[in-house]
Specification:
This protein has three domains: about 45 residues, no CATH class; about 90 residues, Arc Repressor Mutant, subunit A (Orthogonal Bundle); about 50 residues. Helix 2 crosses helix 3. With about 190 residues, the chain is mostly helical. The protein has a two-stranded antiparallel sheet with strand order 1-4. The chain contains seven helices and four strands. It is elongated, with a radius of gyration of 22 Å. Strand 2 and strand 3 form a beta hairpin. The chain starts with a strand and ends in a 7-residue tail after the last helix.
């Protein structure tokens, strides 16, 4: 078997992501044992609760990445917007999503508002653990009729705000239908 030299093992602190520990090693190890050494260093450096939190974070990151890729393929969302949707499906707040995606909360808010304009306000709802994630379809022009008056105004506001980033014919049709039904529209 081929040998390699592991010079250090990196561990991450889940309570404070800025703290990264590099543990120097001088042992020769087989490549398949590198993972084992890494796990042992985590065992020494962290408690069971922290390890559990690390596993949850890794699972959430993996879910968000895979689900984001899928949503980006089947919808008109860009990858960062789709990944933000995936995190909200897991119950993360906009601030939590921003931390995981290493961006600002206002950027996440913009992503989510554009997604809500295209796919409805339900796109930001958290899924239950056993619930199958939905395939989002672009809302139809009459969607506002399913909402109460406050939500109607909110949704139409998102469409007018992001109109240049949305499919033009669709946005025009949605706005015109809302105007005809008496929903206040700022243009």
């Amino acid at each position: 078997m081929c040998e390699s030299i592991v010079r250090s093992v990196t561990t991450f602190n889940t309570y404070n992501p800025a703290i990264v520990t590099h543990t120097p090693l001088s042992k020769r190890v087989y490549k398949e044992n590198i993972c084992c050494l890494y796990t042992q260093s985590i065992d020494k450096a962290t408690s069971k609760t922290t390890k559990r939190q690390m596993m949850i974070q890794m699972n959430d990151e993996r879910y968000a990445t895979q689900r984001g890729r899928y949503l980006a393929k089947i919808t008109e969302l860009r990858k960062p917007e789709a990944k933000a949707i995936a995190y909200t499906e897991r119950g993360y707040s906009f601030g939590g999503v921003a931390k995981h995606m290493d961006t600002s909360e206002s950027t996440i808010k913009d992503y989510m508002q554009r997604a809500m304009a295209l796919y409805g306000l339900e796109v930001t709802e958290t899924l239950l653990p056993d619930e199958e994630p939905p395939d989002y379809d672009k809302v139809k022009p009459g969607y506002h009729e399913t909402l109460d008056s406050q939500e109607q105004e909110k949704w139409v506001k998102f469409i007018t705000r992001y109109q240049e980033k949305l499919p033009q014919e669709w946005a025009y049709e949605v706005i015109e239908t809302a105007k005809e039904d008496g929903v206040p529209v700022d243009t």
